[in-house]
Amino acid sequence: MTLDPPEGDWPSFKTLADVMTFAGLTGDPADKDTLAGSLCFLLGSDGSDHPRVFALIPEDDFSKLLEKWKVPAMAAGSLVLQDPTPRQAGQGALVGRTCRVVVGLKPTAASAPVAVASASLTTLHSLFLSGRAPYTDMAVWGPYHHRLAKKIRLKGIRLNSQGEIVPVEINGPADFEAWRESYSVFRTGCIMFGQISPARLDCYEHHIRSYHERYGRGCWALLYQADVRARLELAERLRRQGKEEHDCAVAAGGSHPFDPKIPWEWVWNMIVKDHAFWHRELEEPALLILAKTQKTSQLVGADAPVEVPGNLGADRPTRTQPSVSARTMSGNT
């Protein structure tokens, strides 16, 4: 038995009352003298609100709310309010978690603050100001920027056997965890500049994590390539599509969720919903790799190479094939 409801059941959670039922809290949600109703009363709801209303309450804040929760109980023939039992406290926590799960947010424990170097912030800010896709190359973008800068200086050039100076490519993250660390820095920057909400950013991370868990480490190079193409190419196509749809809707006297002032909020919502893109770039080729009908090298191009695990410190020359994301000493950060 899993802690969360199956993904196929998520659409059936239309109200907070549905979530209460899943968590095992009984009684009329609109009656504060019942177990379910007492928690609804604390949340300021009668149980008819959609779970999304409570999904964006930070987990720490939701836990603090539960500390104030008093549940009804019968004592000496009269109704009294008391602290919840450990079982009831767990059910209350499950309500908050389920609200996040059924709207597509992955519940996470409180994490340590992510520091972003000023140089990285400047780069990201310039992308937002220019209107270009906020693509950051995870090979040279991530935490501990000062350490990475030293690595870039050391690996930027090398001498070949003829004594000629040649550029050295710095490849992308070797695995999902390394990617997640870099994406966390990107996430922090987007939130700081108010361009993409935490909910949209977390949904994208959950999207990549789900694929990684489905296809395994053997398809990581393919998954990273799809991620790069999504953030670099698909994102810009979606921005143009959103702007066109928005302009047409406004001209016709209607409205559209695309906001020209913060276009990437809409883009990050739609980027995980472009099923045709993910099927073409990842799902179909991943099945070919897992079925061993084609090799990874046949399906992965040169535009988003990854580091080889266990060989992170080795220098390797730039590939001879031109690459839109070749990382050299003067590469994109």
Could you walk me through the main structural features you see in this protein, from its secondary elements to its overall organization?
There is one protein chain. Helix content is 50%, strand content 5%. It has 333 residues and is mainly alpha-helical. The chain folds into two domains: 7-102; 118-299, no CATH class. The strands form two sheets. The protein has a two-stranded antiparallel ribbon. A two-stranded antiparallel ribbon has the order 3-4.
Radius of gyration: 24 Å
Helical residue percent? 40-55%
E-strand count: 4
Q: Quick one: overall form?
A: elongated
Average pLDDT works out at: 83
How many domains, in number, for the residues?
2
Low-confidence sequence ranges: 310-333
Strand ordering within the main sheet:
1-2
Q: Span from first to last CA?
A: 44 Å
What structural class should be given to the helix and strand makeup? Answer: mainly alpha
The biggest beta sheet is recorded as: 2 strands, antiparallel
> Proportion of β residues?
under 5%
Order of helices and strands: HHHHEEHHHEEHHHHHH
- Count the DSSP helices: 13
Summary, kept brief:
With 333 residues, the chain is mainly alpha-helical. It is 50% helix and 5% strand.
Secondary structure topology:
Blueprint: H1 16-23, H2 35-43, H3 52-55, H4 59-67, E1 71-75, E2 78-82, H5 86-102, H6 118-130, H7 145-155, E3 157-159, E4 165-167, H8 176-192, H9 198-215, H10 220-251, H11 263-270, H12 275-290, H13 296-299
Antiparallel strand pairs: 1-2, 3-4
